[in-house]
Amino acid sequence: MPDRKYFTRNTFRFMAELAQNNDREWFAENKHRYEADIKDASLGFIENFAAHLEKLSPHFMATPRSLFRIYRDVRFSKDNSPYKTHAGIHFRHEQSKDAHAPGYYLHLEPGSVFAGMGIWHPDSKALRTIREHIVAQPAAWRRVSRSMKFGDSMEFEGDRLTRPPKGFDPEHPLIEDLKWKDFIGVKHLSQSFATSADLPKQLAKIFKAGTPFMTFLCDALGVPF
Questions:
Q1: What does pTM read for this prediction?
Q2: Is residue 182 part of a domain?
């Protein structure tokens, strides 16, 4: 049996058109397209990816809740557009409700497809804990963050400080690393990657390359990998 395709050109075509028509009337008329090309496609992918995720680690979840809602929270935003124009799939750690924990992520958007892993916007306590773990385990951090395998697959992205974080030695050899406010590895991908029939297998390969990085973050935060 040939591999099943999950996302297609129609997935990205819908997102592009939604970006041009981001209002409730247009969405209501095209909701069937959202249901078929994004929601159902994503849920089918998540269901299939669960077995690959289990092989990476038994502590991350692939469930229908992995798909972010398309509806934007506009309560505190100047942008009142009601819908997101991308699909986000987040494979959370099983302890993510009770503790800040790393996760895996797939982002689908016209002109912006990427895989990510790590922890985004940790609270101040979790962020300090990660920084302290880097200081306590500098050799281990260098191995996981600068390995050729990780570097070929990922690059660090996110917010970072312009000055050394308070309470850390400004002359520390890893001070540039300690300035990160997010600890996220990202691999930018093509749209054809997302529409490939072997997407689950290829995404699992990318995530696997970051296993030492994810293990380091989990150890820092006291959650199992």
A1: 0.94
A2: yes
